[in-house]
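Protocol step 4 of 5: obtain the predicted structure for the target chain.
Materials: sequence only (see below). No template structures provided, no constraints applied. The aim of this step is simply to have a reference model before the mutagenesis design in step 5. Sequence pasted as it appears in the construct record:
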Amino acid sequence: MKWAAAAILVTAIAQAHDIGAQVTWSREISRLFDRHCTACHREGGQAFPLTAFPQAHARAKEIARSVLERRMPPFGAVKGFGELRDDESLTQEQIELVTSWVRAGAPEGDTALAPKKASVTQKLSIEKLGQEWVSDPRRKIETQTTFIGIRARTLSGDSVRVVARRPDGTVEPLIWFYRYDSKFARIYYFRKPVTLPAGTAIVTSVPGATVALLEPAR
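Step 4 output (structure tokens):
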């Protein structure tokens, strides 16, 4: 039994190594970056370009650190706390794909498998916006209102939870800003419009933090 268990373990390790060694820029990583990174990381973009292999290879270790710490891509909100769309942050499986590639030496692989040209496919939703409702601990929503998004106004610290406390006592999570960087300020759109009744309070986990809830255009 011990020999059998050892054989299984060796096989599993070998397979894991093979999987890591098979990850290449041309086949997997270039496409992953195209979907999640190149809207900003491109020539003329907000950050250094990552559209070509030499650019990514030169920064491979930096890239691995950034994705492991979940600093990049900078969505700035916790998954599952509130229903938000346009979340371009990486899944755990995608993070492991990138780190496997870096551990293997960030190989380019067969260039014939690479996309013909990097295309900026990452596009964020743009909605026509109406009025903003700015949170304040001293006030509540006066009339039933539907909101389509939320944005940070003033955050004390980089981790702030925001909830809607309805008059009946129920609490609805809206967003959890985490490692939020104002350099990447954005509007976070709800997956579905959120309708809040009169008397609802918008509560933040950090005193002094404020947000703006966004109404659709009328």
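Step 4 remarks: DSSP finds five helices and seven strands in the chain. The chain has two domains: 2-113, 129-216.
Proceed to step 5.
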